[in-house]
């Protein structure tokens, strides 16, 4: 019932790979890892949710906060690798219209 | 004819640490009842949202939350109850809604999605405010099954002959 966050700095962006479950318990750790990256001027932050199999509104709220922060610093936030379930929650809440979300991950796997 | 109803209750500390226990309890019961994967995932989110509301709003200093599950022949009924201060659920309910794609990003709110998700993912939701707050939610085996229309004999009867 845990979450792991791995950060790598790539040439032109920060990549955050998240694995596990994002809920009220684990969300603070995600916020701590994510928000400072969005506070670098003009930075692109990419969050890979490929190994996330559960998210709820607490986690979605973190991404809203991170997006706002990124825009404040003239940067951007992109989320990739969402599985069908996670993608569904982004769609239901309308977040897929305000956050750049990469293609749903390939079905074949 | 009375419906066969089993009832399961779990009392947990109102802390974020235990929200996943509530989620997994409901998942286990729903699985036992024969619900499918997507419905169970919906319930897990809805229950977690209700518990997170309690964790965030019900108590100034620690308290507990009670998860109740009624196993019915036509539905699962899940309640999440607290004994905390009567937080303004109506105001929370007014704020609920999806994110608007037309709003400037700076105006987006980080909260307010929880109740909206419960409403969207479950078939019926009631909010009762007695001592604390109870959120009662139901999911019917037949998605269009509002209570009045459900035959006591169960979901199979609703199939067209």
From TrEMBL, chain A:
Keyword hit for Phosphoprotein: yes
Which residue ranges does the record assign to the STAS domain? Answer: 15-109
Q: Which InterPro entries match?
A: Anti-sigma_ant (IPR003658), STAS_dom (IPR002645), STAS_dom_sf (IPR036513)
Record key words, sorted? Phosphoprotein
Molecular function terms, GO-annotated: anti-sigma factor antagonist activity
The record's listing under CDD domains reads:
STAS_anti-anti-sigma_factors
Give the protein's function. Answer: Positive regulator of sigma-B activity. Non-phosphorylated RsbV binds to RsbW, preventing its association with sigma-B. When phosphorylated, releases RsbW, which is then free to complex with and inactivate sigma-B.
Q: NCBIfam families attached here?
A: ant_ant_sig (TIGR00377)
Family, according to the entry, reads as follows: Belongs to the anti-sigma-factor antagonist family.
UniProt protein name: Anti-sigma factor antagonist
Lineage, opening ranks: Bacteria, Bacillati, Bacillota, Bacilli, Bacillales
UniProtKB/TrEMBL annotation, chain B:
Q: Which GO terms describe its molecular function?
A: ATP binding; protein serine kinase activity; protein serine/threonine kinase activity; sigma factor antagonist activity
Please provide the record's keywords in A-Z order. Answer: ATP-binding, Kinase, Nucleotide-binding, Serine/threonine-protein kinase, Transferase
Could you tell me the EC number(s) of this protein? 2.7.11.1
The record's catalysed reaction(s) read: L-threonyl-[protein] + ATP = O-phospho-L-threonyl-[protein] + ADP + H(+); L-seryl-[protein] + ATP = O-phospho-L-seryl-[protein] + ADP + H(+)
Q: Does the keyword Transport apply?
A: no
Provide the leader sequence positions: none
Q: Which residues form the Histidine kinase/HSP90-like ATPase domain?
A: 12-139
Q: Gene3D superfamilies from the xrefs? A: Histidine kinase-like ATPase, C-terminal domain
The EC class name is: transferase
Q: Which domain of life is it from?
A: Bacteria
Q: Which residues form a coiled coil?
A: none
CDD domains registered for this protein in UniProt: HATPase_RsbW-like
> What does it do?
Negative regulator of sigma-B activity. Phosphorylates and inactivates its specific antagonist protein, RsbV. Upon phosphorylation of RsbV, RsbW is released and binds to sigma-B, thereby blocking its ability to form an RNA polymerase holoenzyme (E-sigma-B).
Family as reported in the entry's similarity comment: Belongs to the anti-sigma-factor family.
Matching entries from PANTHER family are given as:
ANTI-SIGMA-F FACTOR RSBW-RELATED, SERINE-PROTEIN KINASE RSBW
Q: What is this protein called?
A: Serine-protein kinase RsbW
Record the organism: Salsuginibacillus halophilus
Lineage here is: Bacteria, Bacillati, Bacillota, Bacilli, Bacillales
